[in-house]
Design a protein that fits this description.
Elements: H1 2-59, E1 77-82, H2 92-104, E2 112-116, H3 118-126, E3 130-135, H4 144-160, E4 165-173, E5 179-187, H5 201-210, H6 213-284
Parallel strand pairs: 1-2, 1-4, 2-3
Antiparallel strand pairs: 4-5
C-alpha cells in the first residue's frame, strides 16, 4: 500500500513540474509581449493626447459641426467590448464582463454588442446577447487598420440602426499594479472640459473649409479605439504575468508539500520494515 502511494505521489509531482515549465514559459512570453506593447502604448498615448487637444480646440467653436455630434432619443445602446483571445490572464475578462453587466442593468433595452476576443465571443453566446460583429485573433500589438475595421462596423450600424449611444468597454493601464475597467462613450461624439480653450473662430473656419468634419471625427475615433486596444492588450499581458507567476509559485508550494508527504510515507515504510526484521530476529531466538 505504501509503495502504491509513493508511486502516485511521484507521478503527481512529475505532472506539477511539467505544468510549472509551461507557466514559466508563458510568463517569459507575456513579459516579452508586454515590453513591446509598452513602447507602442506610450508613444500612442502622446499622439492620442495631442489629437484630443486638437479636437477640444475645434469643439470650442460653433463652426465645427458633425453629424456624429447630434444627440439621439433612442434608448438602445451599442457596447464595444475588448476581451482577450486566450485565458490564463487572471481576472482580466471577468472584470470587464462584471463592469459591463452592472452598466447594462441601468438600460431600458437590451443593447447590441460588438465584441473583440474569443473569450468575449464565448461569453455573450452563452448569455444569448445580440452581437452585431465578433472580431477574434487581433494582433498582439493592435494596428490602426484593425481599429478602422472595428470603427467601420460601428459607423455602419450607428447610421443604419436606431442607436442612442455607442460605448467602449476596456481595461485601462495605469501602473503595473493599477489597472481599471472603464466604460467610455464614443458616440454621439463630444469631448468634455473644452471650455478652457479660447475660441479661434477664423482658424476653425479655415480648417472646416478644407476638411470634412465627419471624416475628422471618424479619424479621431479610430485613434481612440486603437488606444483602447493597446491599453487592453497591455493590461491583459500584465494580468497574465501575475497569473503565471502565481501559478508557478503555487506549483512549487504544492511540490514542497508532496515532498514532505512522500518522505513521511517512505520513512514510515522503512520503519515498518525495520520493525519486521527485528521482530523476525527475536522470534528466532
Amino acid at each position: 500500500m505504501g509503495s502504491a502511494n509513493l508511486s502516485s505521489i511521484k507521478r503527481r509531482m512529475k505532472s506539477i513540474k511539467n505544468t510549472i515549465k509551461i507557466t514559466k514559459a508563458m510568463g517569459v512570453v507575456a513579459n516579452s509581449k508586454m515590453r513591446k506593447c509598452k513602447l507602442k502604448l506610450y508613444s500612442n498615448n502622446e499622439f492620442h493626447k495631442s489629437m484630443k487637444d486638437t479636437m477640444n480646440k475645434l469643439l470650442s467653436n460653433e463652426e465645427f459641426d458633425s453629424n456624429y455630434m447630434k444627440a439621439r432619443k433612442s434608448k438602445k445602446d451599442l457596447y464595444v467590448v475588448l476581451s482577450s483571445d486566450m485565458g490564463l490572464c487572471g481576472g482580466y475578462n471577468n472584470g470587464i464582463f462584471t463592469e459591463l453587466e452592472q452598466d447594462i442593468k441601468n438600460n431600458e433595452e437590451k443593447p447590441y454588442i460588438l465584441v473583440c476576443g474569443q473569450k468575449g465571443r464565448d461569453y455573450f453566446r452563452r448569455r444569448e446577447y445580440e452581437t452585431i460583429a465578433e472580431f477574434v485573433e487581433i494582433s498582439e500589438i493592435a494596428t490602426l487598420n484593425e481599429s478602422k475595421m472595428v470603427l467601420r462596423k460601428i459607423i455602419s450600424t450607428y447610421n443604419s440602426e436606431d442607436i442612442g449611444r455607442v460605448n467602449i468597454v476596456y481595461c485601462k493601464y495605469v501602473t503595473p499594479i493599477e489597472k481599471k475597467v472603464v466604460i467610455e462613450k464614443l458616440l454621439p461624439f463630444n469631448i468634455e472640459d473644452n471650455n478652457k480653450y479660447e475660441k479661434n473662430t477664423n482658424e476653425v473656419i479655415e480648417i472646416s473649409n478644407n476638411i470634412d468634419c465627419d471624416e475628422l471625427v471618424e479619424y479621431y475615433l479610430s485613434q481612440k479605439i486603437l488606444n483602447c486596444m493597446l491599453n487592453s492588450r497591455m493590461c491583459e499581458q500584465s494580468f497574465r504575468i501575475e497569473a503565471t507567476n502565481n501559478a508557478t509559485k503555487n506549483g512549487n508550494e504544492l511540490i514542497d508539500k508532496l515532498k514532505i508527504k512522500y518522505n513521511r510515507i517512505r520513512q514510515s515504510s522503512i520503519t515498518n520494515e525495520i520493525c519486521e526484521i527485528i521482530g523476525g530476529s527475536e522470534a528466532l531466538k
